[in-house]
Write a structure and sequence with these properties.
nine-stranded mixed β-sheet, two-stranded antiparallel sheet, 5 helices, 13 strands, 35% strand, elongated
């Protein structure tokens, strides 16, 4: 594991940087020297699922892994919005409208293809050299430009108001939190992402990943 990749199933409630720090500590202790460990794309703290960690000389290729397509499963709650687009933000109820399944499916279909998306201000994107979420938490105005992303597929798994479950295959750089908000806006009822799980990154699947507990990490 000193030079290569490690597939991790990230638990909820932990930052991606926290995962990296814990893995680095364990590998360094086992090797008896400091082992370099990096990630190839963050997952939000509330999210779970596949992370590809690079170790040793493989860290030089981190950028290549970060550009790969990804598949997510998510739960979206309709009728409410969140300041962060997820459960960690301030939640407000804005509508009690009940879109039909046909309306939901039509809106989902409208997002398939290349779309323009504005990443959330509470994200790790850098603005003027600083992380956007740090600026936002400091009360500073953050302007993040639109960018092109590709939604290869967007499937409705289940819909029982107010929650809909989706599976989506997307290009690198796509924010599912933003997609959830945009779906809610297009439905006219508002929405935010309550659960998010990354299922695969290119050819690597969550079924191949290990839990932190498998490495003796229990916190």
């Amino acid at each position: 594991m000193e030079n290569g990749i490690i597939l991790i199933d990230k638990p909820a409630g932990m930052t991606s940087f926290g995962v990296v720090a814990r893995i680095r500590r364990v590998l360094s202790e086992r090797a008896g020297k400091k082992v370099k460990v990096g990630h190839t794309g963050t997952l939000d703290p509330f999210a779970t699922g596949l992370m590809i960690l690079v170790t040793g000389t493989e860290c030089k290729k981190a950028g290549e892994y970060s550009k790969l397509d990804k598949v997510y499963e998510a739960t979206i709650r309709l009728g409410q919005v969140s300041t962060t687009g997820d459960p960690e933000g301030e939640i407000s109820t804005i509508s009690d409208g009940h879109p039909t399944k046909e309306e939901v499916e039509a809106v989902l279909a409208s997002f398939v293809g290349e779309i323009q998306q504005r990443p959330p201000i509470y994200s790790a994107i850098k603005v003027d050299g600083q992380r956007a979420y740090k600026l936002a938490r400091a009360g500073k105005e953050v302007e993040i430009p639109l960018r092109s992303v590709t939604i290869h597929s967007l499937e409705l798994i289940d819909y029982t108001y107010p929650e809909l479950n989706i599976r989506t295959h997307v290009s690198s750089g796509t924010y599912i939190r933003t997609l959830a908000q945009d779906i809610g806006e297009k439905l006219g009822v508002g929405a935010y992402c309550t659960d998010l799980r990354r299922i695969s990154i290119n050819q690597w699947n969550i079924s191949e990943a290990i839990l932190l507990g498998d490495l003796g990490i229990i916190d």
